[in-house]
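Researcher: I've been going back and forth with a colleague about how FCD domain-containing protein might be arranged in three dimensions. Neither of us has a model we trust, so I'd like an independent prediction. The organism is Paenibacillus gyeongsangnamensis, in case that matters for your notes. Sequence below.
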Amino acid sequence: MPNKKLTYETVYERIKQTIESGVWPPGHRLPPLEQLSAEFGVGVSSVREAVRILGKQHILRIEQGRGTYVQDLPERPPSGGLDFLERATMLQLTEARWIVEPELAALAAEKATEEQVAAIMQTAEAMKRKVAKGQDFFKEDLLFHEYIARASHNEVLVHMLERISDLLTDSRRRSMKWPGMNEKAASYHYLIAAAIAQRNPSQARTLMKSHLEDMRTEFERDFNDNRAKSPIDGAGVQEEKPE
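Model: Here is an independent structure prediction for FCD domain-containing protein. You can compare it with whatever you and your colleague have in mind.
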């Protein structure tokens, strides 16, 4: 059974189709996020995420204080090419997270304030409830890892993660579609939160490593399963056909 699209992905496709059809030509200013939210019948956060991605793709131009404009007609990349590069990036990102985030969890168990511990636990519990009900938990997933980073009280590591926040968002966008991963992630989050609340750095580190190891394994499988389908080799260079 195909995976259900996330809300912001549906919004992304509707905005892109509106641009491609010529209803919103290059230079057109988009309505405010709140108006689009009402028209599409979705939350403002879903519209904001769709607009952010279209901005990264240079389809929309976001001008602070002025508005969001159509920059150009969407280009269609070679089939599979962009997806291949995205998968490779996500795999490398997960490897980097596996190195950094377990230590952040351990530091949080040592240094988090009581208020920070409470926020981490509440977010983990909210995610667990939403997963059980089949509800969108994207916000809670992002907040959970952000709260742990801040609870480490290491500003250098916090800023490092902030610099790759777009990649982290894209990573979670992909992993949420894997069968069974949402339930596993919710369970890990709750256990990690409990270890931090119990001031157990070793346990928090081990659980976070296991959580990210699961993700790394899935990204490797996803990457390898689709590698043969891509016209781009592992170095990201278009293969030349012999004449």
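Researcher: What would you highlight for our discussion?
Model: I'd start with this: The chain is about 65% helix and 5% strand. After that, consider the following. Confidence is low (pLDDT under 50) at residues 77-82, 231-243.
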